[in-house]
Every structure is written in C-alpha cells, then in structure tokens.
Amino acid sequence: MLRKILLSLLLLVISLPLLAENAIYTSAFNNRAISGYDAVSYFSDNGPVKGKKKFTTRYMDAEWRFATQQNLDSFLQAPEKYAPQYGGYCAWAVSEGYTAKGDALQWKIHEDKLYLNYNAEVKADWEAMMLQHIESADNNWPSLLKK
C-alpha cells in the first residue's frame, strides 16, 4: 500500500507539467504520437514497430508515423480505432485522476483498444485491476484536458 502511495506521488510530481495540454501525448522534444511507433502495428501479431517519416500524417495536432502505406491508410480510415486510449497518456495515471507520459513499449490491447502505461511496474499494477482502472479512467477522461 505504501509503495502504491509513493508511486502515485512520484508520478504526480513528475507529471505536473503534463496536465494534458494536448489531447495526444507527445514528448517535449518532438510532436510524435506514441514516440513514433506505428499505431496500427500494435494490432498485428508482431507487435509494435517504429514508423517511417515517409508514412506520416497529422491527427489531433500530433504527428503519427507508420511502417507501411497500408498501415497509414488503415489509420486514416479509422484513427479512433488505432489511436491509444486517453491520448497515449498513462492509463493508470488517468484512472487516478491525472496525466503522466505513456511509454510506447508498455502497452496492452483490451477489447480492441490500445492502452499505454508509464513503465512496466505501473503496467503490472494497472493490469492487476484493469477493468476497474479502465472504468475510472473513462470517467476521468477527457476532463483532464486543459480547455
């Protein structure tokens, strides 16, 4: 219990500047969603791969990269199907009522939706009570976005 409280406080302090000014999480150094990973590739058997600059689009004020033209085309047809939940912010943090960065390599597909988490430890905690965390995060989002 103490570990969970300390982790919450740490994530809160780390994420204070990340009070979701943007609907899609991007790093301070570029405007790439999911750290440049191909959002469609998460839904394949091979898992996520980095996107290429030549297969790029803009969606919700972020740059999205894809490994192939086919994946780019799939995303353009249904971006809400492939974009991570909560704009790619940490699903556990959103369930707790704040935002923190989502790590493109700490992911889970549940009911055809992509979720990202801050790190492996946070992901394990989130998965232990995933349905409750999703319900809580769904209730908290998008009120966490700055207007």
Layout: helices, strands, pairs:
Layout: H1 2-15, E1 52-59, E2 62-66, H2 69-77, H3 79-82, H4 91-96, E3 103-110, E4 113-117, H5 120-128, H6 130-140
Antiparallel strand pairs: 1-2, 3-4
Order of helices and strands: HEEHHHEEHH
Number of strands: 4
- Indicate the radius of gyration in whole angstroms: 15 Å
Number of domains: 1
Taken from the alpha-carbon principal axes, the silhouette is globular
Q: In whole angstroms, how far apart are the ends?
A: 34 Å
Helix content: 25-40%
Biggest beta sheet attributes: 2 strands, antiparallel
Model regions low in confidence, pLDDT < 50 over at least 5 residues: 13-18
Strand content of the residues, in percent? Answer: 15-25%
- Strands in their spatial order, largest beta sheet: 1-2
What would you call the structural class?
A: alpha+beta
How large is the count of helical segments?
6
Mean pLDDT: 90
